[in-house]
């Protein structure tokens, strides 16, 4: 079995570039969705708001400045090849250093505090990042990264449904969560839904769902149909761009699923603002 060696500095530089670029350049799927939303928006105010968002993204890319002042908490989903060895350091430290350099050298806002309840002192470099790692077969490292702002994160929820709730119970919880969020998460939003697993697995699935391109659909046609149905229902709520009214409250609904226990049906909803920063790299 051939072992591939990667220097820790390569990880650091790639992670740094990843987080700087996702803060400056909006992804094509989100950009295309915003353009489509502007065309379909029936509210003059909503149409104007969407125009301002598009102009903001254009300026951010041209000047390489953050899309939003809340540059988020760094989250990484990693597929780590089982034939990879990190030299001159360790993977965890290399990733954290990459995030640190991105937020310092890229002039991105540092928003992370040392302790969640008592000593809420800013770490001054936006670390630690949240890292989820899966060991997979191969000699590469794939990283799916996101910068999660908390205006939308605070509107997210998890509920432990029982199987008797059925599809209608799942739909009701998702729609109730979005309705309760209202204008707070800076619509138009991306709604990530995780169904199955355990309490924490459902939440991880929902977070990962927000990082999936919104021009893709669940591989199971039943869930793909549910994504479409939920998007239509959410856009009928009328919150609209920036919560000022309109037919574009959400740009997309992404569902991720996982097998679960016979007695449960965990459902998590992770709401993401219109910035929806995400980017994937392979090393």
Quick description:
The protein has helices spanning 8-24, 28-40, 44-63, 91-105, 150-153, 166-181, 199-210, 221-235, and strands at 4-7, 73-81, 84-87, 130-136, 141-148, 157-161, 189-197, 250-260, 265-272, 278-282. By secondary structure, it is of the alpha/beta class. The longest helix is centred in the first third of the chain and has 20 residues, at 44-63.
Q: Strand portion, in percent? A: 15-25%
Q: What is the H-and-E element order?
A: EHHHEEHEEHEHEHHEEE
Please state the structural category: alpha/beta
**In whole angstroms, how far apart are the ends?**
19 Å
Shape label: globular
Total number of distinct structural domains: 2
Portion in helices: 25-40%
By DSSP (H or I, 4+ residues per run), the number of helices equals 8
| Biggest sheet strand line-up | 4-2-5-10
Structure description:
By secondary structure, the chain is an alpha/beta fold. The chain folds into two domains: 102 residues, no CATH class; 133 residues, no CATH class. Helices cover 40% and strands 25% of the residues. The chain contains eight helices and ten strands. Strands 4-2-5-10 form a four-stranded mixed β-sheet. It is globular. The chain starts with a strand and ends with a strand. The mean pLDDT is 97.
Write the layout of secondary structure elements.
Elements: E1 4-7, H1 8-24, H2 28-40, H3 44-63, E2 73-81, E3 84-87, H4 91-105, E4 130-136, E5 141-148, H5 150-153, E6 157-161, H6 166-181, E7 189-197, H7 199-210, H8 221-235, E8 250-260, E9 265-272, E10 278-282
Parallel strand pairs: 1-3, 2-4, 7-8
Antiparallel strand pairs: 2-5, 5-10, 6-9, 7-9
Helix pairs in contact: 1-4, 2-3, 6-8
């Amino acid at each position: 079995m051939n072992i591939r060696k990667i220097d820790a500095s390569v990880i650091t530089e790639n992670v740094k570039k990843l987080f700087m670029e996702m803060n400056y350049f909006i992804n094509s799927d989100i950009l295309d969705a915003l353009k489509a939303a502007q065309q379909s928006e029936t509210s003059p105010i909503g149409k104007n708001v969407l125009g301002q968002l598009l102009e903001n993204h254009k300026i951010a890319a041209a000047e390489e400045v953050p899309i939003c002042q809340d540059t988020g908490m760094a989250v990484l989903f990693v597929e780590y090849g089982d034939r990879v060895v990190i030299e001159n350091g360790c993977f965890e430290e290399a990733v954290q250093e990459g995030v640190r350099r991105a937020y310092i050298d890229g002039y991105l806002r540092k928003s992370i505090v040392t302790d969640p309840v008592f000593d809420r002192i800013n770490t001054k470099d936006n670390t630690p990042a949240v890292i989820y790692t899966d060991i997979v077969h191969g000699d590469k490292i794939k990283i799916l990264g996101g910068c999660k702002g908390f205006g939308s994160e605070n509107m997210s929820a998890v509920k432990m449904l029982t199987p008797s709730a059925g599809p209608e119970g799942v739909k009701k919880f998702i729609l109730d969560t979005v309705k309760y969020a209202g204008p707070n998460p800076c619509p138009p939003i991306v709604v990530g839904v995780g169904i199955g697993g355990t309490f924490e697995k459902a939440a991880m699935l929902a977070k990962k769902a927000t990082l999936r391109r919104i021009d893709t659909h669940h591989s199971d046609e039943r869930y793909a149909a549910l994504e479409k149905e939920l998007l239509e229902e959410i856009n009928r709520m009328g919150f609209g761009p920036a919560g000022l009214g309109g037919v574009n409250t959400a740009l997309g609904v992404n569902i991720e699923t996982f097998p679960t226990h016979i007695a449960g049906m965990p459902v998590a909803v992770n709401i993401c603002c219109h910035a929806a920063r995400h980017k994937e790299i392979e090393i």
